[in-house]
Design brief:
The chain is an all-alpha fold. The chain folds into two domains: about 10-205, Clc chloride channel (Orthogonal Bundle), CATH 1.10.3080; about 220-400, Clc chloride channel, CATH 1.10.3080.10. Helix content is about 70%, strand content about 0%. It has 16 helices and no strands. Helix 9 (about 220-250) packs across helix 13, helix 9 (about 220-250) crosses helix 14 and helix 14 (about 355-370) runs antiparallel to helix 15. The radius of gyration is 20 Å and the shape is globular.
Length: about 425
């Protein structure tokens, strides 16, 4: 019997269900990873020797889960979703999705330099695919499948960052490097708003990186933002090259995955130790929200922020390229905000308090080729709407300077 094709009202209803389920999953993941595990790991990192042990343990046990429960050496969350989007024969393996998400909880919660957004993008995409298959719609209807898949992406990101409009734009920009796929727009917005509502009903709607109230932007702010975009574009280009080289090196090794991730965890710990000496806080570890808050609050001098960019980038390469199931989005936000804070402290061009906010958009735009989503993320996570135009300037320049490459190997070059 031929399966039914999907009507548009059915797509909208399914998008609502995707948003509800994904919102609940992200909420549980956040409470487990950030509120329960990370909240205890953060003070424990000051115990002598713990900063070396914690990320190594997280990556080691996360690698064990991937090796023996997920039974998969493929551990790059956003790429898995994009592969399902572009290749009909490469849908997400739903039998191992829960194990991969659990692995990421250990990696991030115990201090691996990785974010929660990419694993939640993966979780949302998995939920979208699961519902599509459960309703027994025609698998040949690729357009409807892609819409539901990307609605899950929007929901996962929106809940993870409390940023529904960013999640919606990300669903449109993420599949391609040079163009947009507008088809998921309305379903993705429904999913994103639903997941966001569930998340903030429990954790509150205060932006993650709330800044003091800003006035309107000036021409100097826009010019300063353009220079921040240049720096972020160059930095993200270097990060992509280092990540690709490290990933290729780890992938070519015949060592078991959990040993690779253990090595990545050990390297992350040593890098984090230098970060602790530099800042007096374990900013290099974990998703990096504390580091972004330090940047938008201009806590340190500019040279400290420049070094933090290097340390966070190096630790993230060590964590993720080793095969650990985590994402680069959070670390890229850390590196971008730190770059903006350094510029704001060194060069009197643009309001000093605005530069870290626009910097949030820079590395993400350059690394993921998502300038619109990156700019809106800067606004939604800071609560500073006046930063939108300068953030767009930063994101656009960073996207151009960073070149055609991407962190994601399955992002289409179109």
């Amino acid at each position: 019997m031929q399966r039914a094709r999907v009507s548009y009202p059915s797509i909208l209803l399914m998008a609502l269900l995707v948003g509800i389920i994904t919102g609940l999953v992200v909420l549980l993941f956040y409470l487990l990873t950030i509120s329960l595990i990370w909240s205890r790991v953060l003070p424990a990192a000051f115990v002598p020797g713990a900063i070396f042990v914690l990320p190594a343990a997280g990556l080691f046990f996360g690698g064990l889960i991937l090796t023996y429960l997920a039974k998969s050496d493929t551990a790059y969350p956003t790429d898995a979703v994009l592969q399902a989007y572009h290749e009909p024969a490469k849908e997400i393996d739903l039998t191992i999705s829960p194990w991969k998400v659990l692995s990421s909880a250990l990696v991030v919660g115990l201090g691996g330099s990785a974010g929660i957004a990419a694993p939640m993008i993966y979780a949302g995409g998995s939920i979208g695919q699961l519902l599509y298959n459960m309703f027994k719609f025609d698998p040949r209807d690729r357009e409807s499948f892609q819409i539901i898949l990307m609605s899950g992406v929007a929901a996962g990101f929106a809940a993870a960052f409390k940023a529904p409009f960013t999640g919606t734009l990300l669903a449109l920009e993420l599949p391609f490097r040079r163009t947009l796929d507008a088809k998921p727009a309305i379903p993705a917005l429904i999913s994103a708003l639903t997941a966001y509502a569930i998340m903030v009903s429990v954790v509150g709607k205060t932006p993650f990186f709330q800044v003091a109230k800003m006035g309107g932007f000036t021409l100097a702010d826009v010019v300063g933002a353009l220079f921040v975009g240049i720096l972020c574009g160059l930095g993200s280009r270097l990060y992509i090259l280092l990540y690709q080289a490290a990933r290729s090196s780890f992938s070519s090794s015949r060592v078991r995955l959990y040993l690779k991730t253990l090595l990545g965890g050990v390297a992350t710990g040593f890098i984090a130790f230098f970060g602790l000496l530099l800042t007096g806080a374990p900013f290099v570890l974990g998703a990096g929200f504390e580091a972004v808050r330090a940047a938008v609050d201009l806590t340190y001098n500019p040279f400290v922020f420049l070094l933090l960019v290097f340390l966070k980038g190096s630790a993230t390469v060590a964590t993720i390229a080793s095969g650990a199931f985590g994402g680069s989005i959070g670390p890229l936000v850390v590196m971008g905000s730190s770059t903006g804070a350094a510029w704001g402290g060194l060069v009197p061009l643009g309001a000093r308090e605005m530069m870290p906010v626009v910097g949030i958009a820079g590395f993400l735009s350059g690394g993921y080729n998502v300038p619109l989503a990156a700019a809106v993320l800067a606004v939604e996570t800071s609560g500073a709407p006046s930063a939108l135009i300068p953030a767009l300037a930063t994101a656009l320049v960073a996207r151009i300077v960073s070149g055609p490459e991407s962190i994601m190997s399955h992002q289409s070059r179109q």
